[in-house]
Amino acid sequence: MISQHSENSILKTENSARVFAIANQKGGVGKTTTAVNLATALAACKKRVLLIDLDPQGNASTGLGVSGAGGNRNSYHVLLGSARLAEAAVPSMVPGMSVVPSDVNLSGAEIELINLPQRERRLALQVAGIRSDYDYILIDCPPALGLLTLNALVAADAVLVPLQAEFYALEGLSNLVRTIQRVKRNFNPDLEIQGIVLTMYDRRNNLCDMVARDVRAYMGAAVYDTVIPRNVRVSEAPSHGKPVLLYDFRCAGSQAYISLAREVLRREQAGPGLSGAGPGVLGGLAPLGKPAGTLEDRAG
Ligand code: ADP
Ligand code: MG
Fold first, then answer.
1. CB 282 within 8 A of CB 184
2. Residues with CB under 6 A from ligand 1
3. Ligand 1 pocket, mutate which of 139, 203, 235, 239 (most atoms under 8 A from CB)
4. pLDDT tens-digit readout, 85-96
5. Which ligand sits closest to the CA of 57?
6. What are the Cα distances from residue 167, in Å, to 77, 148, 185, 212, 217?
7. Shortest CA distance to 191 belongs to which of 54, 8, 53, 38?
8. What's the pTM?
9. What's CA 186's distance to the chain center, in Å?
10. Ligand (nearest to CA of 238)
């Protein structure tokens, strides 16, 4: 029988898309906003981008003015095996970016998948078929660590974690890191953390500031320098069915997502060893509770 490692390597050939799962089991932390706007910013950097909406709420789809309802194929059909990803992908209003929408049926998929073969690899197997068509594939995960998110983590090369700087942020993060480590051990040995992005950041809020400092102390270089500020234009954009970059390019939120895309691309170019986002970081997370390097360490 083929080993897990070589099976994964076969699925991931050279010159093919890098796949990021945008994950955090907590709702309302900015996953969808980050998926939509990072995807848009990467497309603006001339990358071929596919955004897969894997949340039954379909916020990424509606935020881009795309509907997964009606007769169209969507991520539900992809997971259940009645459509290929290429059939479910539709062009978005952003040049160079396609979307695989979701719809409410996806909430039933968690249960329908249980008895299907390869239930945690179904998205990975589908993604393998279109890797050569894109530079980046982003997967917007639902706010839970169920079978949908598991499919995303098994399909992904790396996880990008949006984190809202609030009181329980670190606890939630350590749960997520444990899950990522479990997925790495059991299904996807190459899984890395691309990075952690602080979202809805409010500089005038002291708690925000304290939590951000803690997160940087514990997670070290995994945390992007870029911080996404709380910005009303970001929250208005989805109701216009647009990424904020198309809604108001000059606002602070748009500029932050452009800066995040640049940072993501820099890490990609640096490669796992140098980027600080490679297996080293994930390894360093194991104890989580023991700082991976404090702010002072890194300044000095
Ligand atoms: P998740 O996908 O993690 O549930 P969302 O991306 O949907 O989170 O964000 C939750 C809510 O917060 C949405 O209403 C969104 O518009 C808003 N939001 C996200 N990021 C920002 C931001 N930087 N500034 C202001 N509002 C934001
Ligand atoms: Mg969401």
1. yes
2. 27-33, 59, 143, 199-200, 228, 230-231, 234-235, 238, 253
3. 235
4. 999 999 999 999
5. 2
6. 38, 27, 30, 10, 15
7. 8
8. 0.89
9. 20
10. 1
Under DSSP, the state recorded for 68 is -
The answer to whether residue 278 scores a pLDDT higher than 50 is: no
What is the per-residue pLDDT for 103?
Answer: 82
Q: Which of 92, 38, 35, 31 is nearest to 65 (CA)?
A: 92
For residue 30, give the nearest of 244, 271, 174, 248 by alpha carbon: 244
Express each pLDDT in 18-35 by its tens digit: 999 999 999 999 999 999
Question: Whose C-alpha lies nearest to ligand 1, atom 10?
Answer: 28
Query: What are 95's two structure tokens?
Result: 């040049």
Contact by Cβ (8 Å): 167, 49: no
Binned at pLDDT 50, 70 and 90, residue 67 comes out as confident
